[in-house]
């Protein structure tokens, strides 16, 4: 035995060693660790030098217990770009792994983009995380980084996350200071300069134990955003977004979440994915879980890759979530991440203005230069940074949260318009006749949501009821059902479209008056807002009920939809509370219902002191006309003698 150890010592002193596969002196590291090797293939190493670097990786791997419970290994080569030779998920038995390393091909490049390789290593750690395992990067280079500032930034970021960084510099073209800045510490435990690629063999016996024994750094927690915040992320999943950029988006969302104090009393988070087909609420504000569980749930959001875009609808969904679920003392924030242009040039500014009027902050993050600044400006609260962020590639997400998170935290929300606090009883009459498509009925519900936003919903301020009508009418909910706007809007969402053939709006008006508003508060304004796309089937009955309602001191606002209603504006005035334009609104279609104008007017209108007389014109009875008696002189009709017809042969 003694002879064997003397022989081993002699061979090591001579710069040689027994093959590791049969070397009993090699102590196998059983530490749970995820190790990523970064191999420089820029213009420095030649093919034979690359092979020496590859052998070095083999020798290092041999000294670890490769298994899913012990050590996992990944290799990334980098030059102008990076390439995953294999990742942390692709794990095989030791001999298979060594064979795979030997099969890595040499692909020489020009630039030395080490920052991209480090970013990809961070991506691998996040993509396949493992509790309790040390995360380790071994950065091997033969020259100075082409982008030293970017390399230093990403190295600093990974170290802050508790990832161990070892740097190995080969040759005289490396920058010693850069190696020290990249490494966890500027000590010989983490920095390994060698003169030639042959020298890599000499550091294996010191580097492997250092990797095995280095303690996991303590992660200094960053002070989270202290203010109460409702934070909604919109994540695009269209075909223009590939799998990895989508995952980087999710990692960005996770990074942002970690910068906030996630709890019921501080920051709550929602995540909505959007594409062409639909938008989906993946995480909701009212489903709050532990920060760890939240990060896990975000990471497990699946990628769909659907075509086209429903960005506008996703923003509307986020807006509705904030209206329904947000706390009164919380700052409300939407962060919209997009890769694609969208044809929402007309409606988007309207929605953005609506968000501003409610005091909601909206940030736009574009991951493509083809998304123009003007388009982002239509989305964002303001047309400037930090409200607009334009990234060149999805990899830029990795560093964005470092600066963007604090900017979101300290951004001042726009001044919100004060809601109407005057006591009001408000009843919506919603047309559900068969002439209205289901999609248009949903637009009516959106209109109701927007008008409600102008009022302070509470038992002491504004109470709301809704009635649908067609051949029959139905009370969807009454005035007493809700204590706040969240409960009310949830009820609006549940109103179903049940079409009927006829428009018997007069029955809905009578029901709203006699069964809902009759028992309303004495000090409250009583308002009916009726929406319909065609004249009531029984027009005279509708006028009669409107007149009775008017004399009861109930104000009726009418919204006529469609070209015919615009032409029949005078007819609409006969149903409305007053025959001026304050109570009559028309719209060419259901997409452009006048929620802002009507909301403002319904809020500011005063309780009438004098009820105007009926607008139903009295029935006009034509005067009775007596026809004059005309006496004609008597005349004697001349006698007519019938001709005598003679039939031959008679």
Query: Could you tell me the mean pLDDT?
Result: 86
Name the helicity range.
25-40%
CATH topology name of the largest domain, in short, is Rossmann fold
Number of domains: 3
Structural class: alpha/beta
Beta-strand proportion: 15-25%
- Identify the CATH architecture of the largest domain: 3-Layer(aba) Sandwich
Distance between the ends: 167 Å
Task: Specify the biggest β-sheet.
Answer: 6 strands, mixed
What topology emerges from the helices and strands here?
Elements: H1 2-13, E1 33-40, H2 47-61, E2 71-78, E3 82-86, H3 94-102, H4 114-127, E4 134-141, H5 148-160, E5 164-170, H6 176-182, E6 191-194, H7 200-213, E7 229-236, H8 243-258, E8 267-274, E9 279-283, H9 291-299, H10 311-325, E10 331-338, H11 347-357, E11 361-366, H12 373-379, E12 388-390, H13 397-410, E13 424-431, H14 438-452, E14 462-469, E15 473-477, H15 485-493, H16 505-516, E16 525-532, H17 539-551, E17 555-561, H18 563-567, H19 569-575, E18 584-587, H20 595-604
Parallel strand pairs: 1-2, 1-4, 4-5, 5-6, 7-8, 7-10, 10-11, 11-12, 13-14, 13-16, 16-17, 17-18
Antiparallel strand pairs: 2-3, 8-9, 14-15
Helix pairs in contact: 2-3, 2-7, 4-5, 8-9, 8-13, 10-11, 10-15, 14-15, 14-20, 16-17
Signal peptide: 1-19
Domain VWFA: 34-207, 230-408, 425-602
InterPro entries: ECM_Assembly_Org, VWF_A, vWFA_dom_sf
């Amino acid at each position: 035995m003694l002879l064997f150890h003397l022989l081993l010592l002699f061979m090591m002193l001579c710069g040689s060693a027994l093959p590791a596969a049969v070397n009993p002196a090699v102590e196998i590291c059983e530490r749970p660790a995820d190790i990523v090797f970064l191999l420089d293939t820029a213009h420095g190493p030649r093919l034979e030098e690359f092979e020496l670097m590859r052998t070095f990786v083999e020798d290092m791997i041999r000294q670890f217990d490769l298994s899913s419970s012990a050590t996992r290994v990944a290799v990334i080569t980098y030059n102008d770009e990076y390439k995953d030779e294999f990742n942390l998920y692709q794990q095989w038995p030791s001999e298979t792994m060594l064979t795979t390393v030997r099969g890595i091909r040499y692909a020489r490049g020009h630039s030395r983009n080490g920052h991209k390789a480090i970013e990809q290593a961070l991506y691998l750690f996040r993509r396949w995380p493992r509790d309790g395992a040390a995360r380790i990067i071994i950065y091997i280079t033969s020259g100075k980084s082409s982008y030293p500032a970017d390399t230093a930034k990403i190295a600093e970021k990974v170290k802050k996350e508790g990832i161990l960084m070892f740097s190995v510099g080969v040759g005289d073209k490396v920058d010693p200071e850069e190696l020290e800045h990249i490494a966890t510490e500027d000590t010989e435990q983490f920095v390994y300069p060698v003169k030639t690629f042959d020298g890599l063999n000499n550091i294996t016996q010191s580097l492997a134990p250092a990797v095995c024994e280095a303690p996991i750094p303590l992660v200094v927690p960053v002070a989270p955003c202290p203010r109460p915040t409702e934070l909604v992320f919109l994540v695009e999943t269209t075909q223009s977004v590939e799998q990895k950029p989508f995952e980087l988006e999710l990692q960005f969302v996770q990074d942002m979440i970690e910068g906030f104090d996630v709890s019921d009393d501080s920051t709550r988070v929602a995540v909505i994915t959007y594409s062409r087909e639909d938008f989906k609420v993946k995480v909701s504000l009212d489903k709050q879980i532990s920060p760890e569980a939240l990060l896990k749930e975000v990471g497990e959001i699946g990628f769909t890759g659907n075509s086209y875009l429903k960005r506008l609808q996703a923003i509307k969904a986020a807006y509705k979530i904030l209206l329904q679920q947000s706390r009164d003392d919380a700052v409300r924030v939407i962060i919209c991440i997009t890769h694609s242009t969208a044809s929402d040039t007309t409606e988007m500014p309207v929605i953005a203005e609506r968000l501003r009027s409610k005091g909601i902050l909206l940030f736009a993050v574009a991951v493509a230069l083809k998304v123009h600044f003007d388009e982002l400006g239509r989305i964002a609260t303001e047309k400037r940074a930090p409200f607009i962020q334009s990234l060149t590639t999805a990899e830029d997400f990795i560093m964005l949260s470092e600066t963007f998170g604090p900017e979101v935290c300290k951004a001042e929300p726009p001044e919100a318009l004060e809601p109407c606090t005057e006591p009001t009883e408000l009843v919506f009459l919603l047309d559900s006749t068969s002439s209205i498509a289901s999609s248009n009925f949903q637009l009516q519900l959106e209109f109701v949501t927007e008008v409600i936003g102008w009022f302070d919903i509470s038992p002491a301020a504004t109470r709301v009821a809704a009635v649908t009508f067609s051949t029959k009418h139905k009370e969807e909910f009454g005035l007493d059902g809700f204590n706040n706007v969240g409960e009310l809007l949830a009820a609006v969402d549940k109103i179903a479209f049940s079409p009927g053939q006829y428009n018997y709006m007069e029955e809905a008006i009578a029901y709203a008056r006699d069964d809902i508003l009759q028992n309303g508060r004495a000090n409250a304004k009583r308002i009916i807002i009726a929406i319909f796309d065609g004249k009531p089937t029984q027009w005279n009955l509708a006028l009669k009920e409107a007149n009775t309602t008017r004399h009861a001191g109930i104000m009726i606002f009418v919204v006529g939809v469609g070209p015919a209603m615009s032409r029949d504006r005078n007819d609409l005035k006969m149903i409305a509370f007053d025959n001026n334009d304050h109570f009559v609104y028309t719209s060419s279609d259901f997409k452009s219902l006048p929620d802002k104008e009507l909301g403002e007017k319904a809020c500011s209108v005063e309780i009438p002191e004098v009820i105007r007389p009926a607008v139903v014109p009295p029935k006009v009875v034509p005067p009775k006309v007596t026809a004059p008696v005309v006496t004609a002189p008597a005349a004697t009709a001349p006698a007519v003698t019938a001709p005598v017809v003679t039939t031959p042969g008679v």
